[in-house]
Amino acid sequence: MVQRTEAESRVALKDGRTITIRPLMDQDRVALISFGLGLPKNDLLYLEDDFQNPEIISRLINANAAENWRQIVAVTDDDSIVAYTAALRMPGWSYHVANVRLIVDRAWRRSGLGMAMAQTIVEVARENGATKVTVEMLAAQTAGQAIFRRLGFVVEGQLARHAIDRDGNLHDIVLMSVFVRT
Ligand SMILES: CC(C)(COP(=O)(O)OP(=O)(O)OC[C@H]1O[C@@H](n2cnc3c(N)ncnc32)[C@H](O)[C@@H]1OP(=O)(O)O)[C@@H](O)C(=O)NCCC(=O)NCCS
Hints:
It is built from 5 helices and 8 strands. The chain is an alpha+beta fold.
């Protein structure tokens, strides 16, 4: 059993608001459903996980106990979720690699929360034993690329027409990665 060391932290954002960053918990199911329902259509089109599908939300909540999965949320004082990030350790010969994903509620963007969440999940992945962290996003998602580049990630490759959105359109994917010390 891997010991979990992620703790709760309070983060002061650039716009003066304060937020709590902590692991996703079993009692977050309703808040995670509301977070998904509040995401803009554009984001939903491109998200790898369908945050408006109750089965996906159940899968994420149930994954809390999984050894290879770490999920972190940003919550307001009334326990609303306003950002979600996760690190998933790969199976097989890429077991040292964690793949991360990140999404911030539109009303909370451009105040440093995405950056704080990205820093947290890279650290959590490292604590979970990963020595390489990867992130994939659409080539068009330049804000996400800016965040991970600031954290030392580099583009390893671009996969042509590798993702299909919920409207059936194909998109190129950018794969970024960073090596971290355990
Ligand atoms: C990408 C995302 C997480 C950024 O969240 P955020 O809270 O707005 O990010 P931050 O405020 O921490 O921004 C950090 C830096 O990213 C860059 N950035 C963020 N949003 C940007 C935008 N819309 N356009 C250009 N650069 C942007 C900037 O360099 C910014 O630093 P600055 O504010 O000092 O200029 C958010 O836009 C989102 O959830 N997008 C949809 C999902 C996604 O693309 N996820 C990333 C791949 S998994």
